[in-house]
Design brief:
Elements: H1 2-46, H2 51-136
Length: 137
């Protein structure tokens, strides 16, 4: 029971840590968005500087889009890693449960063997009493 409680507490703590990580990621994304907005503002201000500047702005925007795509790919990989870790944890839990059931079955078999030995001792005592009664007659 204590192990299960500690296990549950660890699960809760891991989930909290994952939530904190998601919050940090959202904050980073908001910061990136603010940076992109500042960049777009600077580009809008720089439009008057001519076509060359606009082309460089478009190139920067394309580069930022590529960076966002790389970031989304990294995020998908992190999610996959987390899902694989959750699956490994579920498998470990199933294995612990199988082990617990196996130990329980073994204890039950041992109790049954002990009851059988006890019955055998009782039969032996009854047999000895019967023999004594026969001899006393």
């Amino acid at each position: 029971m204590c192990n299960r409680k500690r296990e549950r507490e660890r699960e809760i703590e891991k989930e909290r840590e994952r939530e904190r990580e998601r919050e940090r990621e959202r904050e980073r994304e908001r910061e990136r968005e603010r940076e992109r907005e500042r960049e777009r503002e600077r580009e809008r201000e720089g439009v008057e500087r001519g076509e060359g500047e606009r082309e460089r702005g478009r190139e920067r925007e394309r580069e930022r889009e590529r960076e966002r795509e790389r970031e989304r790919e990294r995020e998908r990989e992190r999610e996959g890693d987390k899902e694989r870790e959750r699956e490994r944890e579920r498998e470990r839990e199933r294995e612990r449960e199988r082990e617990r059931e196996k130990r329980e079955r073994e204890r039950e078999r041992e109790r049954e063997r002990e009851r059988e030995r006890e019955r055998e001792r009782e039969r032996e005592v009854a047999r000895e009493r019967s023999i004594k009664r026969e001899e006393e007659r």
